[in-house]
């Protein structure tokens, strides 16, 4: 089973619409550091994935990848709202043999992203 508590339930233009969700692998409802599955992320709504990570310094997977091997049962994804769009963003994480985890957040219309404001 994969579960997450996002750092924000709602994103606004003030914080540049960036949200972080850490997915944790659980076995029988308890956090398990032995879960090392490949996790696939998908996103629906007015959002885009900025990066994924797992904290493993030896992992050479590029940050923008939509898949990441869990490290000690953990991996995270950074999401931001798309420019000039508002609404619900649904982020799901799945892995072989694991129940899919789902995070829902909302974003407000933002004209400026940090990477596009220079």
Question: Your description of this structure?
Answer:
The protein is mainly β. It has a single domain, classed as Immunoglobulin-like, CATH 2.60.40. Helix content is 0%, strand content 52%. It is built from no helices and ten strands. It has strands spanning 2-4, 10-11, 18-27, 30-31, 38-44, 47-53, 67-69, 74-81, 87-95, 98-107. Strands 1, 3, 4, 6 and 8 form a five-stranded antiparallel sheet that branches. Strands 2-10-9-5-7 form a five-stranded mixed sheet, with no helix packed on it. Strand 9 (87-95) and strand 10 form a beta hairpin. The relative contact order is 0.30. Mean pLDDT is 75; it is low at 12-16.
Which SSEs are present, and which pair or pack?
Elements: E1 2-4, E2 10-11, E3 18-27, E4 30-31, E5 38-44, E6 47-53, E7 67-69, E8 74-81, E9 87-95, E10 98-107
Parallel strand pairs: 2-10
Antiparallel strand pairs: 1-3, 3-4, 3-8, 5-7, 5-9, 6-8, 9-10
Name the shape in a single word.
globular
CATH topology: Immunoglobulin-like
Unreliable stretches covering 5 or more consecutive residues: 12-16
Average pLDDT over all residues: 75
Give a quick set of tags describing it.
118 residues, mainly beta, Immunoglobulin-like, five-stranded mixed sheet, globular
Q: How would you sum up this structure in a few lines?
A:
The protein is mainly beta.
């Amino acid at each position: 089973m994969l579960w997450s508590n996002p750092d924000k339930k709602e994103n606004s233009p003030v914080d540049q619409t960036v949200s972080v969700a850490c997915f944790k692998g659980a076995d029988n409802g308890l956090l398990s550091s032995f879960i090392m599955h490949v996790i696939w992320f998908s996103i629906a709504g007015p959002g885009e994935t900025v990066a994924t990570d797992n904290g493993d310094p030896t992992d050479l997977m590029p940050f923008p990848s939509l898949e990441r091997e869990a490290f000690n049962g953990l991996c995270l994804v950074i999401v931001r709202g798309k420019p000039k769009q508002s609404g619900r963003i649904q982020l799901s994480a799945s892995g072989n043999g694991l129940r899919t985890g789902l995070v829902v957040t909302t974003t407000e219309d933002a004209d400026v992203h940090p990477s596009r404001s220079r």
